[in-house]
Structure formats: structure tokens, C-alpha cells
Amino acid sequence: MAGTINKVILIGHLGDEVKMHYFEGGNSIGRFPLATNETYTSRQTGERITNVEWHNIVVRNKLAEICEKYLTKGDRVYCEGRIKTRQYEVDGQKRYATEIQVQDMTFLSTKKDPNNTSSSEAATQNNSIPPTSIAKEEDDDLPF
Amino acid sequence: MAGTINKVILIGHLGDEVKMHYFEGGNSIGRFPLATNETYTSRQTGERITNVEWHNIVVRNKLAEICEKYLTKGDRVYCEGRIKTRQYEVDGQKRYATEIQVQDMTFLSTKKDPNNTSSSEAATQNNSIPPTSIAKEEDDDLPF
Amino acid sequence: MAGTINKVILIGHLGDEVKMHYFEGGNSIGRFPLATNETYTSRQTGERITNVEWHNIVVRNKLAEICEKYLTKGDRVYCEGRIKTRQYEVDGQKRYATEIQVQDMTFLSTKKDPNNTSSSEAATQNNSIPPTSIAKEEDDDLPF
Amino acid sequence: MAGTINKVILIGHLGDEVKMHYFEGGNSIGRFPLATNETYTSRQTGERITNVEWHNIVVRNKLAEICEKYLTKGDRVYCEGRIKTRQYEVDGQKRYATEIQVQDMTFLSTKKDPNNTSSSEAATQNNSIPPTSIAKEEDDDLPF
DNA sequence: TTTT
DNA sequence: TTTT
To answer: Which InterPro entries does this UniProt record tie to the protein (chains A, B, C, D) (predicted)?
Structure first.
């Protein structure tokens, strides 16, 4: 009943801002769409075709708050998590929504950093350093 | 236009047989459900809870045919691929179905091998050796 | 200063028993060799060639103790961790030893389980269930 | 004898230029060091400590040539490959050198692109587009 | 619905 | 030997 692995690794760009939802009791959840692209050459026409894949990213609690604080539309991130398909009903019919529950994230660009112009590399050379790697342990100090 | 990654790694058990579909022109597709389990301890009751996650696995052409030949319900496999959400309409309403398009697979148990009793390790010691690792290159020889 | 990833995923077989070392203060470390195989067809002779790759696995504290208790030579495991190359000197010359520091592990077969005959699947159907998935959180309860 | 996985995923920065070596017969190999960083808080002093890990990246043939053409010291890349430890002898003593044989790579920044100022995003808006994702198939067209 |  |  175990001995299984459910792991997702994504590098993509935020298609929108992080949307937060706060629960009673102090828990919180953040959601944002992440785009990955697949490019290939058409066998028929020979032209380059790009398919966009949209992933529903879900983050929780401290990681959610760090995402909301530092990430914005267009930023690039590395995400590691698991696939989770939720089931719900509409008019008595089953529907499915697949999310990526992310536990670990690394920022590959952070436009929200005020002193930063275009890349996370630049950001590390000034005093306002956003966290670039976010660990799984929720009780840790902020990685500054 | 790229610089993105969409990667899924799963280890799980087949929930059903591989269902094949053959296209005109020689292409084929195989589908099967794969179960992964997540076990955790409830904070309320302290009991162990297991959630099952079902993944819609899609394989193509030679890999599909190897899967159909060697895999059966209950077998354990390692899968590597990408997430793909297809959109379709029902009564004018958008629906989404998420699949895992698998390119690489490793068999961790293969009940269909006739000389095999319980594990793929045993299978490698006789003459009827199923492939245990299936490469991405479709034009390769079978890995026997 | 960050924004980097160092991740290793291995599925292989233990080449020897887990060797434990206990430190003063209660910490412990376990080490064992893990074999992965790469099989390919020789372009010259056309015969199948198998290369064995040996990985120096290092586990710590609770995970080390679970490994020692349940794993034995020949068992198959899934390991997730990071690469770490240690530097040392012999006769004033630098030497390097590369280890895989494993944080997450899933047992894919466990011969040490007394009620088990050949695979972890069988093991889950009786009362003596070894842990098959070991989480990163050291403070967690044992996953029974 | 199989059913194993040997997979490495790295995101890091080039510590030096790509060094090429060409073989008779047309094959080529490229090598470069890649740095990943691990940052943690010391339990003793409470200060942030960064450890650098250096990986010996090895790429072959077309991928090697693309790396040499587009990558330079300091660039950030995503690498996917396998661990390979080579054995050699010095004065009759065995020595080991661990490499990462990389088959797939994604460029996360490319300073060598002449029209590019600081990031790969900018690069995609002009006519001199470096490849950002490099597939495994050696016989493919260049991903332009 | 959307990123680069 | 080195990157950010």
C-alpha cells in the first residue's frame, strides 16, 4: 500500500499574481498559474510550434507568504512537489481539477525585489536579498 | 520562448490493464491508471491515513506495446514523463483532463513474465527476460 | 548566493549491509554501497553490455537507524538526496570522495522483514509492516 | 541486473568556460565545472553559512558544441544526467573521479548571446536566439 | 484567463 | 582552480 513516489519538477513563469487565501486558525494557501513551454518542429510544415502547458500551483503557509511577498507575474521559478487531483461535483456530475502541491521552490528571477532590475543575480549584490531557495521545514527561520 | 521544465517522476502500481488504441498509419497509444499512495498521521485522531492518487498514464508506439506485453494490473513501475492537460467541451462547457505522458519507464515487478514468480529480480535469472528499463529512443532495438 | 539545485534520484540494490557509526551526543550515520546498472548494445560487437555504477550512500540519525533495521544486501531502494564531494589529503596530495547524502528513501523490497518472502508488496499484507516511505522530518513518528 | 535509475538534476553556475576535446572520427566532448550552493544557519553561531559544491559536467557531440557556443563563465543552467565515477591509477594506487554525464540541458541565462544584456528572457525578443532547451536526440535539428 |  |  506504499513504496510509491509522486514527484513533480517544474521550471516555468508565473502567468498571474499569487492569490492568497487565509483560513481561520492561521493557515494560509497561495495559488498561481505556472506556464511551461514545449517547442518542436512540425513534421508536416517544418515550422516551429510552441505548446503552452498551464499548471495550477498550490503553496501553503510560510512558503505561500514568501511567494506572495517576492513573486510577481512573469517571474521564473523552480518548483518541486506532487500531483493532486481533486474531485468535485457540478449538477451531480463528477469533475476533476489537478493541482501541483509545491513544497520546495527556488526563485530564478524576482522582479518584486525593489533594488533589482532584471535578474536574481543582480539582486544578490545589494542589501535587499530575497530568499532564492525555500526549504521544506515550515518552522525554519526565513532563509535570509 | 522556452527555458522551462515539465517533469514527472512516479513509482506506483497499475490499477488496471493497459488499454491499447491503434491509429491508421501504424501509431499506437496505450493508457492505464497508476496509483500512488500518501500516508500521514492525522493530527486529530492520531491514526494513519492513506490517500490514493490516481494518474492517467499515456504511452506511445513501441513503449506502449512493451507495456501491453509485460505489464498487468498490480505491477509496480517507475515512470518519467510530463504533465499534459487536455481541454474539451461537454454541452458547451470546458472540461479538463490531466494526463502523464510517459517517455521513460522501468519495470519494478512484472507478473506477466511466465517464468517469473514474484519479482523482476527473479525474472532476470531465466531465459524469458522482460525489459526492465525502456529508453526514450523509439528506433532502438528492444532492450533484451 | 543561491538559486541552485543539487538533486539525485537513484533506484538500485544494496551491495552490502548498512554500516553504522555512532557519534557522542546521539547522532549517527549509516553508509552502504548502492549499485545501478546501465545496459546498452555495443556498436562494434552488437552484444549487450552492462556497466555497474556504485554509489556511496550516506544516511543520518533516524533514517540511518531505519535503514539498518530493515535493509540488507540485495534489497532494492529508491533514494533521493544530494551529491557531496569531500576533499582530503594523502601524503600531501588532494583526494576526492563523492557521496550521495540521502534525505528521502522508499523501500522497494525488504528481505529483513521476517514475515516477508520476496517482495514489499507481500509484506504489506501481514502484521509486520516495515516502513516503505521515509519522510524528511526527523521528528516524525515512525511511518508504521 | 536492471530496473535501476541513476538520475541527477542540477541548477547551478558555470565556474569556468566549456573546454572542448575533439576525437578522431568526429566525436567531441565538452567539460565545465558547475557550482551549486547550500546555505544553512549554523546551530552554534547562528550565522548563515554557504557551502559550494563543484560538479564536473561532461557533455558530448552536438550538445557539447551548443554549450561551447552559447555558455560562458557565470551562466546559469539546468542539467539532467547521470553520475559516473571513473577509476584510474596513479603510482599503482586506485583513484576515483566522479563526473555528471549530462544529456539534457536548459539555459537559464546566456551571456554569450551578443544582443543580450542580462537575462535569457531578453534574448528571446531579438533575432539572435540561443537555444534554451536542448533535447536528447542528437540527430534533431538545432532548436532554433 | 495568463508567462517568456 | 572556479559561479552567483
So the answer is: NA-bd_OB-fold, Primosome_PriB/ssb, ssDNA-bd
B78/D contact by beta carbon, under 8 A: yes
Place of cell 513573486: A71
pTM recorded for the entire structure: 0.87
Mean pLDDT of D12-36: 97
Whether B77 and B106 have beta carbons less than 8 Å apart is answered as yes
Q: How far apart are CA D142 and CA B99, in angstroms?
A: 28
Question: What's the length of chain B?
Answer: 144
Q: Which residues of A touch B7 (CB under 8 A)?
A: 8-10
Element (H, E) at A123: helix A120-123
HSE (side-chain half, CA atoms, 13 Å) at D114: 3
The kind and range of the H/E element at C21 are: strand C19-22
- CATH level 2 (architecture), domain B8-138: Beta Barrel (2.40)
Whether chain A has a CB inside 8 Å of the CB on D8: the answer is no
Chain D partners within 8 Å of B1 (Cβ): 124, 129, 132
3-state secondary structure of D66: helix
* Cell numbers representing residue A28 in the block: 494560509
Distance CA D123, CA D135 (A): 20
Residues of D with Cβ-Cβ distance to A141 under 8 angstroms: 41
Q: Which of D53, D78, D80, D108 to mutate to probe the A interface, most A CBs <10 Å? A: D108
Assign A136 a pLDDT band (cuts: 50, 70, 90).
low
Note the pLDDT tens digit of each residue in D73-83.
999 999 999 99
User: Inter-chain contact C98–D85, Cβ cutoff 8 Å?
Assistant: yes
Q: Which residues touch strand F (CB under 7 A)?
A: A 121-122, 124-125; C 1-2, 4, 94; D 12-16, 33, 35, 37, 50, 52, 54, 73-74
Q: Domain boundaries in chain C?
A: 8-138
